Amino acid sequence: MPPPPNMGGHMGPSNLDKLKMGAMMGGTVGAIMGFIWGTVTVFRFGAGTNGVMRTIGQYMLASGTTFGFFMGIGSVIRTDSSPILQQAYAQAHRRPTIMAQQRAFRPRPRDD
């Protein structure tokens, strides 16, 4: 569903602002997932030569960067819509107009 049109007042966030918001949200979620995945990996296989903190940090950085990148791009693509698409969406989801069919009254012929 496209975003609702602005009804006067202030302008909405720019595409750059949307990119930054998406990247921040994606980076945060990715870092948390990297922390979980890195911790599980350290528990299962050990820290190796890098140590515990560096191993978990590498997982957090890699996961946060990747997910933040795709979330930032996706948020811009998702909210960037053209007026033609908004009009097509509005026409497809408007209330249907019900019109009764009007027929002229014609009496039935009698079979006498």
UniProtKB/TrEMBL annotation:
Signal peptide (UniProt feature, chain positions): none
Pfam short name (any one): Romo1
Species in which this protein is naturally found: Magnaporthiopsis poae (strain ATCC 64411 / 73-15)
Recorded family membership: Belongs to the MGR2 family.
Cellular location(s): Membrane
Parts of the chain that traverse the membrane: 21-47, 59-77
Source domain of life: Eukaryota
Stated name of the protein: Mitochondrial genome maintenance protein Mgr2
Any single biological process term in GO: protein import into mitochondrial matrix
UniProt entry keywords in alphabetical sequence: Membrane, Transmembrane, Transmembrane helix
GO cellular component terms, semicolon-separated: TIM23 mitochondrial import inner membrane translocase complex
